[in-house]
Structures are given as C-alpha cells and as structure tokens.
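Human:
Care to share another protein and its fold?

Assistant:
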Amino acid sequence: MGNTSQFKSVEQISKHINIGLLAHVDAGKTTLSEALLYLSGSIRKMGRVDNQDAFLDTFDLERERGITIFSKQAMMQLDEKMTVTLMDTPGHIDFSAEMERTLQVLDYAILVISGADGVQGHTETLWHLLEKYQVPIFLFINKMDQDGTDADKLMEELQKRLSDSCVNFSMVSDFKNGLSDGAFLENVAMSDESLLEIYLETGGVTSLDLADAINERRIFPCFFGSALKLTGVSELIQGISEYVKCPAYPEEFGAKVYKIARDEQGNRLTYLKITGGKLTVKEMLSGKEKVNQIRIYSGVKYETVNEVQAGRVCAVTGLSETYPGEGIGIEAESDMPVLEPVLNYQILLPPECDVHQMLRCLRQLEEEEPLLHIVWNEALGEIHAQLMGAVQIEVLKSLIEERFGVRVEFDAGNIVYKETIANTVEGVGHFEPLRHYAEVHLLLEPGEVGSGLQFFTDCSEDVLDKNWQRLILTHLEEKEHLGVLVGAPITDMRITLAAGKAHLKHTEGGDFRQATYRAVRQGLKQAESVLLEPFYEYRLEVPIEMVGRAMSDLQRMYGKFDTPRQEGERAVLTGSVPVVTMRDYQTEMISYTKGRGRLFCTLKGYFPCHNTEEVVEAAGYDSERDLDNPTGSVFCAHGAGFVVKWDEVEEYMHLEHILKKAEEQEEQPTNQEYISAAVRRAKVISALTPEEEAELEQMAEAARKKREQARKKYSYRKELDSACYKKTKENLKEYLLVDGYNIIFAWEELRQLAEVNMDGARGKLMDILSNYQGVKKCSLILVFDAYKLEGFPGETQKYHNIHVVYTKEAETADQYIEKVAHEIGRKYQVTVATSDGTEQVIIRGQGCHLLSAKELKIEVELAQKELREEYLGKAGRTRNYLFNYLDEETAKQMEDVRIGRKQK
C-alpha cells in the first residue's frame, strides 16, 4: 500500500469527474489508458500489455492473458481545479457484466475503436448500453498508424452504424482558439439542430455550446490517433479538459454500489459512487453498518481519507451486506443488467473436496459477481454456475485455485432457458395448517418481450391490509420463481395481487410467503406456458463467393437474416439465431472461409424456443414432484391440515375467483341495457295518471338504489403507485379506444355497408364517433388494422375531433390498443370498446373499463338522444329520469297498466 503522492490531496480538488474507458477486445483500450496517465503526469513510464507491466493490469491473470478482467480506476489531474477518476473496464464480452455495472457511475465515457477493424458487433452493444444509461461519449479511433486505415472511411462508418452526430474533432489543433475554423464549425452545426440555429444566428459556436451538446448526447466528438505512438492522445485530453461539465449533486446523502471485491488481506471492499451529500468515516449507512475506512484507489495503491464529497468514487470497508446495484440513501436500486449469462455449467470438484465448504467459498465469488448465479442442487449434490463463455471459465478456474487452493473443472455446459405465459390466468395459493392462515389471488399476464417480471397490486385495503399487501409483493420479488415446463426461471410477466385474506389471530408473515409461492405455481399450471431460449444478434462477413454457404448454414441453425448486402469484396449478413445452434459456428466459419470471414455476436434476448418439445422431453421435469416449488395448497379441516392439488384448489378456496366474477358481470344486463329497455317502453308514460306516475317513480327509485348497493358491494377501489400503490382515477382525463373493424362487423348497418363499400363503412363510423365525442368530451382514438399492408409504417390522422390510427405492418389493432392501454391505463381513466373476448381479459388486467360493441351502440344512441332532450320541458325530463332507472319488473307493471287501460 502507498499514497498516490503525485496528486494533490483528494480533499483539496474542487471539481471532479468520472470517465470510463470502453472498447471491444483488442482495440487498444489499456494502451490508451497508459497513454492518458503518462501524458497527464500520473505515471512516469508507459507500461505495455505485451510486457505485462500496464499500470491498471493489477492482477496476474490479466497480465498473463493480456486482457482486462476486472474494472479498476486511476486518478489523473487535468488541470489545477479538476481531477479525473479514469475507470478501465473489461473489453471481452465474457466480462460484460463487470463493465455494465461500472456504466452506472460514469459521468463520461471514452469509447475506443480499432481503426484497423472498424465498428464491431460488441462496439454496437456498448453504444446501446451507453445510450441506455445516458452517458455522454468521446470516441477515440485507435491504431491509425497501421497500414490501410482511412479516417474518412472510418468517419463514414461511425456515422452510419453508430450515429450521424459523430463529429471529427481531430481537425482542431487548438481547442481554445480552434472554434474559428469554418469547416469544423460547419460540420458541428450540421450535426445538431440547436447548434445549427446558433451558428446561423451568430455566425459561430462557443465552447460552452459544444460542452452542452456533448453533455446532452447531441453530438459525439471523435479523435483519431495511435495510443502506442502517443499520437492524437494529447488532443483527446485537451478536448476532455475543454468540453466536460461537472454534474450538480443534491445535498442529501446518496450512494450507488457498483462493485464488491476483497483486498490482499481478505477485507471486504464496497465500491460506490457518492451521488449526494458526503460520506465520512465511522458514519452509519442505512442505520445498520459503520464505515471503517474510505479508500481512493489508483491502480493497486490507495489513499485513505476521512471524508468524500458527492461525485467521487471510493471503496469503503466495514460493510458486509451491500451488493452491486444497491442504492443507499436517496439513490434508487439499479435495474437488472441488460447483458446476462446464457450458459449453465456444472462445477466438477476433486474427490477429496468438501462440497459444502466449496459452496461457501463460491458464494463469496457470487457476491463479487452476482451474475455467476451459483446454484446448489440438493437432490444431485451438484454445484452449477451461469457463465458467459469459455474465457470466463478459464479465468474462474484460475481464480478458484488462487484464492481457495482447489483445482476445479467444468462440464460441457448447456443453455439457460426461461419460461413465460401466453394467456392471462388467476393463480390461487392457500396455506392453512393448524393455527396458520393466508390466501392469495394473483393475476398472471404476459408481459412485453424483455420486460422481465413486474409486480403490482390491485387489491382494496378493505379486502386486505396494506401491510400484508406489501409483504406479498416482497415475497414475489425475493424468489426466483420457476416455470412448469422444464423448471426454468419465469420472465416477461406482469403479476398483480388481485385479492387476499388474512386471519386476525392466526396469520403470520411466513404464511403469506407460502401462499404467494403456491399462487404463482398454481397459476403457471393453468396457463399456456411458453419456453424461451436466448438468441444472438449477429453480423457475419464472408467472401462474396461463400455467401450461399453462409445462408444455408444460418437456415440450418434456425436463424433469420436480412437481405445480404455487399461491402467491398465481402457479403454481410445480419439477423438473429438461437445461441445453442451458434455455439461452435465461429470455428467452422473460420475454417471454410480460410480465415477471411468474421462473426460478431451479441445477446439479443429471450424468444420462443425453436425445439420446445425436444427440450422439454430431454429435461424430464415433473412440476408435481418438485417439492421445493409446490403447485397445490394446504387447507384445514377437523383440526388438521391437508394438501389439495392445484386443479382442485378453486373448489376449496375462501375468496371469489376474480377473473370468473368479472366474466360473469360482463354477461349481466348493464345499466345501458336497462336504460334502452326503458326508452323502448317510454310510450307507456302517456297512459298513466299523476298518482300512478308518482307511485311508479318511487318504485323506480327503490330499484335504482338496490342495484347501486349491489354494484358497490363488489367494486374495488384501485390504488397503484410505483411501489404498487397509486391514487384513484376519479376526475382523471378520459380516453376511449375503439377497435374499428370489430365495431363495424358487430353493428348490423355498418356490416351491411362494409360488404358493399368498406371505405364507406369506415367513414360512417368515424362520423358517428365524431358526434359521440362532441357529447362525451373524452379523447377518442379509433384504431383500424393495416398490418397486412407490406411495408406500411403506420399512420395517425385527426378527423374532426377524434384521432384515427392505422396500425403499421405486422401490428394488429388489438396489439396497438393493448400497448396504449398498458402505457396509460394506470394513469388515466381508459375505456376500450371491443367485443373480442381475449382482448377484454387483457385490457381488464391493465386497469381499464370495457364496452362491448352492443354497449357502445347503446351509448351512441343515448348521446344522440341527449342532444334532443336539451329542448324538452320539465315534464319530459322527469319522465326520462324515471325511465332511466326502470328495471324489468317495474317495466312489466307499467305494461300491465297500459294493457288494462286499453281494454277499458
């Protein structure tokens, strides 16, 4: 250990930024870090990767392999008032998780691209990740000293494959005075509308304007050079010094944990960025643990400080329960990483090794690298780990031997599958052994691709106390729930707490844990499960004469590809392909192209499996025999608990079935139908005497109150916020979404017109709904399918006072309405008009109201009638009020009176 004496004390510097170095493997990222540290005066001599003496390659494994495995940091001083924490991240795709966690604490990033190779597949992945985390980017195109590199062609490739806002800053030799360069200013102005306006108004662009544009990711400065030859690096340093802006931080304390590690003495280190206020030694974090020491690392050395201000990255000791991605204080917890392992391996231990002791050791590594996901199979006595690829396996083997003294091996590995569902179901879990009680009803709905698991509550506090609801949501989030096809983790689902029940005396917290787990499993058993497998997004470059072979291979591997395009003497194929079929293709491709082909793969996500039946059969998973994840429930009778199978739970459950009750209510006569019946009998009113009219008015009022009480008895007040509770929807803006063709073919007069002239039917419906909107004053969106029109991009039109949407190619009206309902259904009062049964179930799950085609027609007729009634006298309004609340029994009495009078 030693102090980084070449710097001023960390506490004396007023401005500070954190800059990360990112690159595809072998782009020269570590060499650039050496050049930056050397030219800024932070180190006296440049190290080299091939000499195994790079300043930031602090681990023996990194020196041996010549790659960065763990993220590290170094301090460098740009000027008297600003220091930079330079954070070197792994470039190899196998260590992407380590890199992605570091992105969350960066203020800026330097993306390094090899001038000899250009933009590669992993480069595009890094670009998208930086976009996700909204990190401003400086680009350094390295290795420009090699033969065949062309800055103009590379600049064209950057603008085509990354962003047309990439701007060549290498043409500016003096950043203080270089803004008078006309050609440079024109290039900058043409890259951003705001800068173009400033340039046209003032004839120039200031450094502050450029700094704002870079910070807001409106332009991306590009520098060309060679880190090894120290060309172009000084210009990069000048550009950073001139154009970076220090973020502003709140006074209230906050911190983001991005890494867990251990020092040479085995002390647990929590790496974090202070995002608000300050952190001092001996301070209690989250009221649980005390900070013993604060370290500012630079390479292997560090400086201890008593206090660290917002914006700085540090490592602290004394914390034993922190984890990567954790938010402390005002800082929120991070989302799940985009890049995740897709391969599962069994760790093979030597015979003399204690498996349980090794499991505890591996848990330490999992703490430092959460995506290892160490799994203990109790039944088989096996340890499994999820990894990204072969390089990570070799590194992990060396790390285990170095740290724990055990030589392990890994099996051939298999794919990490996931499961989701294709329909909406209600899962019920009941846990009632003697002196325990809990029942949980969950709505399980399909989610968007890549959305993961989302948890909500739509349960009234009158039904279940808020504390119990929060506990249920905690139990949903704490466990990795397994599917019922192959026992793989579930994903891409919305799980909503619909109802629950506790016992005043016997319910304990653990009861709801059991009921919640069982509700999920019982729902999955009912649902139409879908097996998902990981897919690569690939870019395959082969000689033109071999493109046929490549296309044939991709079809054999169940891949999809776009139309091949020619780039020079190469054909380029892009598309997606299952990971399992592409695993060994790199070696095969290099062989048949004799080294002239290139393949770049990045994880695209999880999609339906190409060979589900084969995988399910091979897995041999029986969900009924999985005792750790039971599908049935426990009920109590005669003082003893008994198990009920999942398909019999509904016969024993204590609460009503939410989905079935909603369907039954849908089939009951609605208020609109009662009104319609009353209107059709309105002629009877003329046959009544004033006394009979008064008597029937009392009867109608009583019937109205009775129905209103029955309606209120089963209504639920919806409360849902980001922690799953929100305010009610009273007095919110109203939206009406109408499935156009569904309505046309449901209304007889429009259906007949459509058989002759579909355009005429559409126009008439648009006119009808225009008039309806004029009465109701809601925002009305009419949606028509255009998904069969090849290449149609979709279109939205304003027709008088309504919006008309024609969906894009491959998107149905149902899909569009479900998407919009998902986006605004929890914020506004949304009603969807359709008679599609499946869509109605999905829409109801979004918290929206429903109108069938028949009900919408009644609503439209009543709206037209409402206009006419504006001119009725008081008697007419009274009679209309009376008949608005007639039920069938009252109407029958009125009909009897009318018939009797006629006979007299």
About this structure: The mean pLDDT is 80. The first helix runs from residue 29 to 39. The two ends are 113 Å apart (CA to CA). DSSP finds 29 helices and 40 strands in the chain.
